[in-house]
Amino acid sequence: MHKRHYIQGRTSTLILGFAMLLLLAGCGKGQDNGIVEGKVNVVTSFYPIYEFAKAIGGEDANVINLLPTGVEPHDWTPRSQDILNTSKAQLFFYNGAGLEGWVPNFLKGLGNDSEVKTVEVSQGIELIYTDEDDGHGHGEAAEEEHDEDHGHEAGNEGHDHDATHIDPHTWVSPKSAKIMAENMKNSFIEADPEHQANYEARYNKLAEQLDALDVKFTSELEGMAKKEIVVSHQAFGYLCRDYGLTQHAIMGLSPDAEPRGQDLVKLSKLVKEEGIKYIFFEELVSDRLAKTLASEAGVETMVLNPVEGLTKDQEKAGDNYFTLMEKNLQNLKLALQ
């Protein structure tokens, strides 16, 4: 009897041990998921950087995007799996300018043996400073980083940084997006000089697309009767600066910052005085406030996409940076007539 119990117990232990081995094997497989030997492995912080890195890297690179589909990037934080994958990669591309507040701690977690090169792809863009305080600290880390490591950006020498924040939404303008793409191209070449010609050729193709988009925005917006837009999220500063528009935001730099009642009253008055017919909202965050203000002011709502990420439906439909920016242009033209 004791022997039978011993055998049963021994069998149960062996089964449990085998199950644990399978589980550990599965965990090990998951940890390596995404890294490809023989290619330049690149980890990107969110969608537009991922798209540009894929376009430039082509068949020579394996690009892994951290941010899941349908997630808004401002307050997202990475998982341990993301840290592990990045520690094994050759390049880590992030926007910088205060967008990804999680980056400093993320980089500390990579370990001393990681050889990944970290690239802030917004370097070289003339950054926009604002006194808008969104309550989330966006842009504050960037000010410290730029002041300590890189000096002041072009066009901002002598700028009083007290009580100011950096607008991180650089990619929303094709002009700035091209600078970001060039930074990525240079990093690819530095990491993999053997395939320099391939990276140059693919970058040139992407740059031509961005130049064409830039020309289209310039030519089609310069003749518009109106120049003022009302948006739910203050994400269009670079686009407005480059194409002669002015944005009035219901919320701040962060899409979930809460506006004050007096701000809503002021915006409602502006909408009526300027004859604004549309208030823009975006798809990855709630449109509640935009619709409330639109209802009070007797106007309609329409999408203006900051291209921070794709929804699941957009991904399924094959949308990308260029299709979303084309839709933005069409919606801007409708609103500015």
From TrEMBL:
Keyword Acyltransferase listed: no
Basic and acidic residues composition-biased segments: 148-168
CDD domains named in the record: AdcA
UniProt superkingdom: Bacteria
Annotated stretches, region: Disordered: 131-169
Alphabetic keyword roster: Signal, Transport
InterPro entries for this protein: Bact_metal-bind_prot9, ZnuA-like
A Pfam family per the record: ZnuA
Family: Belongs to the bacterial solute-binding protein 9 family.
Name of the protein described by the UniProt record: Metal ABC transporter substrate-binding protein
Organism in which the protein naturally occurs: Paenibacillus brevis
